[in-house]
Amino acid sequence: MKGFAMKKIGEVGWVEKDKPDYGPYDALVKPIALAPCTSDIHTVWAGAIGERTDMILGHEALGVIAEVGSEVKDFKPGDKVIVPAITPDWYSDAVQRGFSSQTGGPLSGWKFSNFKDGVFGEYFHVNVADWNLAHLPEEIPLEAAVMIPDMLTTGFMGAENAKIPMGGSVAVLGIGPVGLSAVAGAQLQGAGRIFAVGTRPNCVDVAKKYGATDIISYKDGNTADQIVEATDGEGVDAVIVAGGNSNILIDAVNTARAGSVISNINYFGEGDTLPIPRVGWGFGMADKDFATGLCPGGRVRMENLADIVKYGRMDPGLMATHVFHGFEKIEEALLLMKDKPRDLIKPVVIIDENL
Ligand code: NDP
Ligand code: ZN
Fold first, then answer.
1. Which pLDDT tens digit goes with each residue over 192-206?
2. Strand pairing category for 11-16 and 2-8
3. 207-232: buried (b, 16+ CB within 10 Å) or exposed (e) per residue?
4. Would you tell me which of 3, 81, 105, 158 could form a disulfide with 56, CB atoms 3.0–4.6 Å apart?
5. 168 lines ligand 1 (CB under 6 A)
6. What is the pLDDT of residue 270?
7. Is the shortest distance between the CB of 218 and ligand 1 below 6 Å?
8. Which among 322, 328, 324, 326 is positioned nearest to 342, based on CA atoms?
9. Ligand 1: which atom is nearest the Cα of residue 295?
10. Probe residue for ligand 1, chosen from 251, 267, 321 as the CB with the greatest number of ligand atoms within 8 Å
């Protein structure tokens, strides 16, 4: 089978591989819709998780079941499924402790394009199919549903971890597809005022549709100063970090008021340490907490997110600005994600021949 792979740090290309093997609880899936992620860009071009050789990329997919193991109960060949980016080993202590993304060690729920081949292949392997896959509701268009496996689960987690008080104020730093999903999540969580920080016009438009009340350009001056001034010197109740480089944490801490949570969903791809402003953090005593997380996976999470879309609470299809058709287009879509033209929010590839 063919797959689009990281050949080594800084280099991508097509590879030929055998179809993956699968165990009794697992499934073999063919993709019907794929999307590249900024994390794929960190992985290849920043070398963020270290060297990988000929590893098939990708962790955002909808698929159709090709084969299942003997113990899989709820899925059969031909079923259309949502495939979460994070596919935990549900038989593990980390799950019982409540941290399903970290099964087997830090970030180890993230298997696709990290510890095994990803979803940009003609076939891919899904572990513990009954507890990782979810049936794809036929009412949801593919370009909307393909945002569920990573964009929605990540952005919504950012809002959930931020512990936004009902009617409280939130600043979302970065409004690419991850930050936009966080804006929508903040709205769904009952935020009052939502500051959205970014400049790409399409992103700004969608941010407003998802509930942003104030748009801030980080190019028009210091972000924290602008938000603190707009809140009469107070700062906000919650900050969600979803873009920028490591210096964004300085803005985040300086934007947060006492009693707030700074909820990070950014993937810091470079550097050994991250900055925290000493004075802004009250010399370490400011009552400004940090929350971190890796987008939750699993069947129940996917089913819940699918309901949010199916019942019209938000439309993630608004983020699909570039829709391609044909498996081989994943190359173009990934390079688009790397180059980030100003009109891009998220590229999506529909694989018509597998539908
Ligand atoms: P994008 O590159 O599309 O968006 C980044 C956003 O950050 C843009 O809105 C950009 O603004 C904004 N930005 C850039 N610099 C600054 C700055 N100095 N201050 C404020 N905003 C700034 O990225 P994605 O939305 O695709 O992904 C965001 C991050 O989420 C990535 O690091 C990705 O790897 C990570 N991620 C994390 C996951 C998790 O589980 N935690 C899962 C998936 C992704 P502009 O409009 O000017 O471009
Ligand atoms: Zn991702």
1. 999 999 999 999 999
2. antiparallel
3. beebbbebbbebeeeebbebbbebbe
4. 3
5. no
6. 85
7. yes
8. 322
9. 40
10. 267
For 274-283, the pLDDT digits (tens) are: 999 999 999 9
Ligand 1 pocket, residue 235 CB under 6 Å? no
Cβ contact 281:288 at 8 Å: yes
Nearby residues for ligand 2 (ion, Cβ within 5 Å): 37, 39, 150
d(CA 32, CA 349): 8
Q: How far is the CA of 174 from the centre of ligand 1 (A)?
A: 5
Token output for 337: 């994600």
Mean pLDDT on 12-19: 98
pLDDT attached to residue 106: 87
Global pTM value:
0.97
Residues with Cβ within 8 Å of residue 195, at least 6 apart in sequence: 169, 170, 171, 172, 212, 213, 214, 215, 216, 227, 230, 236
Query: Which whole number is the average pLDDT over 113-132?
Result: 97
Name the closest-CA residue to atom 2, ligand 1: 176
